[in-house]
């Protein structure tokens, strides 16, 4: 469904003389990514509204997004699987907020997550190989973001254990995605 919508969008741009014929495939791919991303954001927004976890979701994605973008991670084979995995991980993380974590847990796990990023980041996608310089730059950024999320999670604990847990589960989700991507790349 997303693929056909993206194809229609690219064809529309072509028929309106906004793009050239040899650009249709590139625009189709971009439109497919845009539609998929919008579907994921909409799904998370619906879950956020149903759960009433507005502030928690912002904190979760404040930790998750920078680490996931720079460290890389697992890529589902279809848009539906991507949506279901993203929604499932988010939902599980929001449910885990109800389990109290004593400060040593996020501190130790945050250090372990940062160490995993130092060792394994970035998880490259097989369709987008990185140069040595790109790999080093992504790793540096991922380490900074992971360490910042870990430190902020511990610091937030002083004010709110729930806020700390939001940051913690965002970091954990991003790093586990990265590790799944590393494993997927090693297997294929």
Automatic annotation (TrEMBL):
The molecular function terms of the Gene Ontology recorded here are:
peptidase activity
Q: Which GO terms describe its cellular component?
A: membrane
Keywords carried by this UniProt record: Cell membrane, Hydrolase, Membrane, Protease, Quorum sensing, Transmembrane, Transmembrane helix
Q: Which residues, by range, are in coiled-coil regions?
A: none
Q: Could you name the domain of life of the organism this protein comes from?
A: Bacteria
KW Nucleus (keyword) present: no
Keyword field contains Phosphoprotein: no
* Name of the protein in question: Accessory gene regulator B family protein
Q: Give the organism the record lists.
A: Candidatus Monoglobus merdigallinarum
